Amino acid sequence: MPELPEVETVRRSLEARIVGCSVTGVIVRRREVIATPSDPEGGFSRQRPAKRRRPKRVAKPDLLVGRSIESVRRRGKQLAIVTDSGHAVLIHLGMTGELMAPGPGERLRAADHCHVLWTLRAQDGQPAGRLVFRDPRRFGGIWTLPTPNALAARWDELGPDGLTVTGAELAARLGRSARSLKAGLLDQTAVAGVGNIYADESLFDARLAPANPCKRLSAQEWDSLASSIRRILSRAVSLGGSTIRDYRAPDGSTGKAAARHQVYGRAGLPCPACDQRLISTTLAQRTTVWCPGCQTANP
DNA sequence: CGTGGCCCCTGTGGGC
DNA sequence: TGCCCACAGGGGCCAC
């Protein structure tokens, strides 16, 4: 579900709602959505404990109970809730993940598939509602991070954030790769935050064919592509992200950016620029929509 | 090593 | 109406 613009929208909403609150309790309904550094099998790359014949006992994860929330941060599609003690949880929403923040006494918008529920208290001691991680498909997850360094180490594995990525950075990470541009943009170690929607939208904006091999691009084309990525993502942030079907902000609102999509979800329709029919192909195992008239290849 | 293929999981919409 | 298949905003792991 969520790419950078949706996650940034979630971050801003949470920042306004939960920074300064303290965590008074947590309910974990599905332990396997959580990974801890001490998890002998999962480590930081979460495994599927359901597959184990007998679940191994792991240290109780530190889910911030008793701590005070200092900031909500984002890199690419990853979100971190950081407390004044330096303990943090990193949240990845995967395909269908959602964070809900119902106020005190407010009902949950959806009550099924709620895996982790925190209760919050404001600085004045009043109840501040809850924070709820919901994820029907469970491709998302939560990682507990005991120190600021642990968070930094995680985020060092990611490429530069899509809102600020430069052509030189893309060229340095992808310039010698034989993969398609589409596959390159989906690689979170090349640029963090671009997913299937915004990869197609950015490639259309830059008038580059998705099947182009990365290594065929010139420095000017990398600059143009980076500029398109920044523009497409920031515009989507300003519209609250794209709601195709599932995505909701923590207050339940939907994003309005889908109405601006030029190619994603529009296969068979005329290109908004040249009227040729947009075509759908599969690249990097993902549906890819593009305009054969506008988007050039470098054979 | 870089890369493509497969898998994880649930829900939904279209065709028959 | 109901069944079945294809597909969905992601990414980890494993052969080549």
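The first strand of chain A starts at residue 22 and ends at 28.
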